[in-house]
């Protein structure tokens, strides 16, 4: 039966049988961040819309087409968070984190909202794990974020991935490249989509980020950004590449990779499955040396990445990556008589206090039905309590793996299970 009201298009319910995948990804990410000394930060789910217009870029698809924007009862224009970096940088400024030892290393695991066409691994509400290293301009900081992203996929068991790496320069060398890009597109506007026709003048760098099929041949022939880098940006990119090489991370230089956000400078990168294109990117990031300044802070470099949790899980399932075995239920307490209910309830409570997982069966069901329930939950033991057990203050402890059983005094059940 289909309910009258369903989850909105582009959203999903994460049901209990899916939660182990999410727990595994989150736990792995948090453990990895601990190794690199990144601390967790949580920012509001909605922000002043100006935060994203000023940083992500007024002409980007995110701002123009994909943000969920609304006014609250105070007539303030707000936006559901469409990406994670700008809110973290806003918090960095607002809470005076520039006074802390630099760089400030932060991570987040959070829902993201974009009004986009739903597709495999991409929802209008999806979830990202991201990190930001704020206050370090060195190429080694770029390489550190790349290493964390790559190690995450490694520890989760993903294979067949490739790191795409590029530099998009800075204010010194980017104007010369944009001029060359406009010149290249000047006689090809009849071959690209309407959005790209508008981007040529408004934001030509976004031309290279277009995902429309009709534009891909033109993008493939565009001039390479790496040919236009100034000496400082070229040296920075060479250092980043050297670090990545030393880490043994398989990568390719993709001279037309730009990412979809205006705040990036110099290093940009994406990780993609080898059999698919840019629409299937698992994660990516880059350097944003002017974003803090754009928000009113003092000039502060930064670098980070975000990776979609839904897309990670999708790729894990495609590659048949096994999940670690779930923790087994230790004891299922079976009530063989109505009089045993309170006794069974207290036994389960005492076991849990001793660090043993325990559930109590439904005493209105037959002994056979409760035993089937214990087996379906993959319990290690069934602790059976009936009238006979009540009289002797004991339980019949049955090992479900082999069917062996013995009578155990009630006070010895925990020690017996732990042994």
How does this structure look, described?
With 419 residues, the protein is α+β, with helices and mostly antiparallel strands. The model has no long low-confidence stretch (mean pLDDT 89). The chain has helices at 19-35, 49-55, 61-66, 85-94, 139-156, 174-185, 194-202, 216-220, 231-247, 291-294, 309-318, 341-353, 367-376, 387-392, 413-418, and strands spanning 39-40, 46-48, 69-71, 77-80, 104-113, 125-134, 161-167, 251-253, 265-273, 283-287, 302-308, 331-335, 358-360, 381-385, 394-399, 405-409. Helices cover 36% and strands 21% of the residues. Strands 1-5-6-11-10-9-7-8 form an eight-stranded mixed β-sheet, sandwiched between helices. Strands 13-12-14-15-16 form a five-stranded mixed β-sheet, with helices on both faces. The protein is built from 15 helices and 16 strands. Helix 1 packs antiparallel against helix 5 and helix 5 (139-156) packs parallel to helix 9. The protein starts with 18 loop residues before the first helix and ends with a helix. Strand 15 and strand 16 (405-409) form a beta hairpin.
């Amino acid at each position: 039966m289909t309910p009258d009201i369903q989850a909105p298009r582009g959203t999903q319910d994460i049901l209990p049988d899916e939660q182990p995948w999410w727990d595994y990804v989150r736990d792995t990410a948090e453990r990895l961040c601990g190794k690199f000394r990144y601390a967790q930060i949580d920012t509001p789910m909605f922000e002043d819309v100006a935060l994203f217009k000023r940083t992500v870029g007024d002409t980007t698809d995110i701002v123009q087409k994909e943000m969920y924007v609304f006014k609250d009862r105070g007539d303030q224009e707000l936006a559901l968070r469409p990406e994670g970096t700008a809110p973290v940088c806003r918090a960095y400024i607002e809470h005076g984190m520039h006074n802390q030892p630099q760089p400030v290393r932060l991570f987040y695991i959070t829902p993201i909202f974009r009004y986009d066409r739903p597709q495999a691994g991409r929802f209008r509400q999806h979830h990202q794990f991201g990190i930001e290293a704020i206050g370090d301009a060195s190429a080694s900081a770029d390489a550190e974020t790349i290493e964390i992203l790559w190690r995450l996929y490694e520890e989760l068991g993903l294979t067949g991935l490739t790191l795409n790496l590029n530099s998009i320069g800075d204010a010194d060398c980017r104007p010369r490249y944009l001029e060359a890009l406009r010149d290249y597109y000047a006689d090809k506007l009849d071959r690209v989509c309407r959005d790209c026709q508008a981007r040529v003048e408004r934001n030509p760098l976004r031309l290279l980020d277009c995902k429309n099929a009709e534009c891909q041949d033109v993008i493939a022939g565009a001039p390479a950004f790496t040919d236009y880098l100034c000496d400082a940006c070229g040296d920075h990119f060479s250092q980043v590449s050297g670090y990545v090489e030393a880490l043994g991370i398989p990568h390719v230089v993709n001279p037309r990779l730009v990412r979809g956000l205006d705040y990036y400078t110099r290093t940009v990168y994406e990780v993609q499955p080898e059999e698919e294109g840019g629409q299937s990117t698992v994660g990516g990031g880059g350097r944003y040396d002017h974003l803090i300044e754009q928000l009113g802070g003092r000039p502060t470099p930064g670098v980070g990445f975000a990776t979609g949790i839904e897309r990670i899980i999708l790729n894990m399932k495609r590659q048949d990556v096994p999940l670690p075995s779930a923790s087994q239920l230790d004891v299922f307490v079976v009530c063989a008589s109505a009089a045993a209910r309170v006794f069974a309830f207290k036994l389960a409570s005492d076991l849990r206090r001793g660090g043993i997982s325990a559930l109590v069966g439904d005493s209105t069901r037959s002994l056979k039905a409760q035993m089937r329930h214990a087996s379906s939950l993959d319990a290690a033991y069934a602790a059976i309590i009936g009238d006979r057990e009540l009289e002797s203050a004991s339980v019949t402890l049955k090992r479900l793996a082999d069917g062996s059983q013995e009578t155990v005094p009630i006070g010895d059940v925990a020690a017996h299970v732990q042994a």
